[in-house]
Amino acid sequence: MNFKAVVFDMDGTLLDTLADLGEAMNRVLVQHGFPLQPLDAYRHHVGSGAGQLVARALPAHVRADEALRARCLQDFLREYEAGWKMRTGLYDGVPELLDALVARGIPMAVLTNKPQAFAELCMSEFLGRWDFSLTLGQMPGVPVKPDPAGPRQVISHLGVLPGEILYLGDTDVDMHTAVNAGMFPVGVLWGFREEDELRAAGAAAIIEHPMELMRFLD
Q1: What is the Cα–Cα distance from 177 to 151, expressed in whole angstroms?
Q2: What's the Rg (C-alpha) of the chain?
Q3: Which tens digit of pLDDT belongs to each residue from 136-194?
Q4: Is 9 a catalytic residue?
Q5: Position 91 confidence tier, pLDDT thresholds 50, 70, 90
Q6: Which of 169, 202, 182, 196 is nearest to 10 (CA)?
Q7: What is the CATH code of the structural domain delimited by 5-16+88-216?
Q8: What is the 3-state secondary structure (H, E, C) of the chain?
Q9: What does the pLDDT read at residue 218?
Q10: CB–CB of 13/168 below 8 Å?
Q11: What is the spatial distance between Cα 43 and Cα 60, in angstroms, rounded to a whole number?
Q12: How far is the C-alpha of 201 from the C-alpha of 204, rounded, in Å?
């Protein structure tokens, strides 16, 4: 297959954001008198957008309270804004991969369920030295992944066929996203989820280190 572009998930794929996300939500739980969640639990809370992160972190007996969820979401966004880059950083090997893709002239984009404003902040802070064609995050009017609407926008912007795009992600949501949009799904093992989940969700390939992606472009 002649791949012509690469689309990345952000959290758990390019950036290790788990501690900042989890600690922001834990501060919200404290404010509302709910039990804290261990940071490792957030590996399974993240991936489907901020609203789902909040719902999954709340105690089961209050998750059906829509008004409470809405308040906690606003609280989470405020707390995350105050601490979004305290412990976040690029995964080992990601800079080398991005350098290699730029050197090869391979177009790159980011497709994430992170709210658009935070996605743009992270791009500027951690990924600004590389040229990405587009960053598309969660925003009004665009359904979150794995709905194919967002991927279609990215594909159209890149101007290549879906099957010519490598899509890298670390969750089942990412693999379903790639499958739904006709992209080639590559699961990464340095992120938030396990290999079994990725394969069950349709991963066509699994990589353990970012530079392994280059074998698909040789």
Answers
A1: 7
A2: 17
A3: 999 999 899 999 999 999 999 999 999 999 999 999 999 999 999 999 999 999 999 99
A4: yes
A5: very high
A6: 169
A7: 3.40.50.1000
A8: CCCCEEEECCECCCEECHHHHHHHHHHHHHHCCCCCCCHHHHHHHCCCCHHHHHHHHCCHHHCCCHHHHHHHHHHHHHHHHHHCCCCCEECCCHHHHHHHHHHHCCCEEEEEEEEHHHHHHHHHHHCCCCCCCEEEEEECCECCCCCCHHHHHHHHHHCCCHHHEEEEECCHHHHHHHHHHCCEEEEECCCCCCHHHHHHCCCCEEECCHHHHHHHCC
A9: 80
A10: yes
A11: 18
A12: 9
Q: Where are the domains of the chain?
A: 5-16+88-216, 18-83
Residue type, 70: A
Rounded Cα–Cα distance for residues 208 and 211 (Å): 9
Integer angstrom CA distances of residue 153 from 43, 96, 114, 130, 156: 27, 27, 16, 21, 5
C-alpha of 92 from chain center: 17
Both tokens of residue 200? 């069950």
11 is annotated as an active-site residue: yes
Integer angstrom CA distances of residue 98 from 31, 156, 213: 40, 22, 10
How far is residue 12 CA from its own chain's centroid? 6
Identified catalytic residue from 9, 16, 170, 172: 9
Instruction: From the candidates 11, 16, 75, 172, give the one annotated as an active-site residue.
Output: 11
